[in-house]
Design brief:
139 residues, alpha/beta, Rossmann fold, 5 strands
Length: 139
Amino acid sequence: MTRICKVLIVENDDGVRNTLANVVADEGYLLTTLRTGREMSIALDDDDYDIVIIDVSQPGPEDGFALARFARERGCGVILVTGDHRHRDRLQESGEHYLLKPFKIREFTTLADTVLTEIATQCIRRKRGDGSSFPARTA
């Protein structure tokens, strides 16, 4: 049985979150959208996500970099996104996968495939309740 990749989007801007959600859904991924890092923490404790897309600029005490560390500790692949190009140097130095807004859909899908491939070996160690294999996308 193949499993469709589960993506969690953490973006406080409604318009950007909806646009990202449309791209992710059109690519055949299962998705959940949230506004804040606090909501993300709860979601990652309650469910098993493959990729977390996080806006670098977050309301609250933790920025996207801190949230990325939290998500990776739970075995998720991470893609950081930002429209604030002042973060470019920090993103490049962080070693995180990232996209600068605006980005092309093909950029996202290529990066998502890269992230899925990188975390595939971790998934063997991650127990999934449905016994599914990883990674998988709809055709």
